[in-house]
């Protein structure tokens, strides 16, 4: 087996997508409930398979371009590509966006080798974050790597807007012009700005922002998926999540994932909207406390 860097091209992006699909299979619809060897980035509600595939390939190419030292494919001489890892460094914060190994290669050290190579990319970082599944193999992998495992929850179901309180202030549609504000909120909540990741997120998601005398915050949302939310206060986070849920088309399933106990404000919004709360893996952290108020992105942490 050899490890080679992932190239920023459509061919490698499709290879990574195929590895991910083989590794996680039907469990992809259950965010955080992935098959053995699973890891971050393994599950997302598929509203449009073509759009979802485009997001995955775009994510891979983006990280291969910004973090070539953190993105690798494991290749077997006979079987071909059998695993992939995507990781990033952002202002001293290292994130693991994907660790996937195809079923036939699981349990043979492929995931361990990929994880080790990705961690070399983040060895100078003070902080680390992974959104991991609840599968015991994934949990052991991240704990052995020095991460503290914070049990996480997920909101699912369809929104009942009648239970939601009226917004207590303005929420606006965001654009690339809000990037400086979003980077500032990132630094306050997670210790490092997402920087170029905002460009990729804007390609595939709608953006809601608040920025007034009370503070600032933002939320990426697409279909029924809340992809990433950060704010300077629970009040503003509540406003953003409420506004995001109100944008979801009637009857479409909602997924708000990776909520630690520090995100009770989000649970309260979900309960008011008639959503269910289920257990969903771990938010794994090193050198940092759970960001709050914050809903991480599985791809960009």
From TrEMBL:
Gene3D superfamilies: 3.40.630.30. The lineage of its organism: Bacteria, Bacillati, Actinomycetota, Actinomycetes, Kitasatosporales. Residues 1-168 form the N-acetyltransferase domain. It comes from the Bacteria. Residues 35-45 have a biased composition (Low complexity). Pfam families: Acetyltransf_7 (PF13508). CDD domains: NAT_SF. This is GNAT family N-acetyltransferase. Residues 27-67, 176-197 are annotated as: Disordered. It comes from Actinacidiphila polyblastidii.
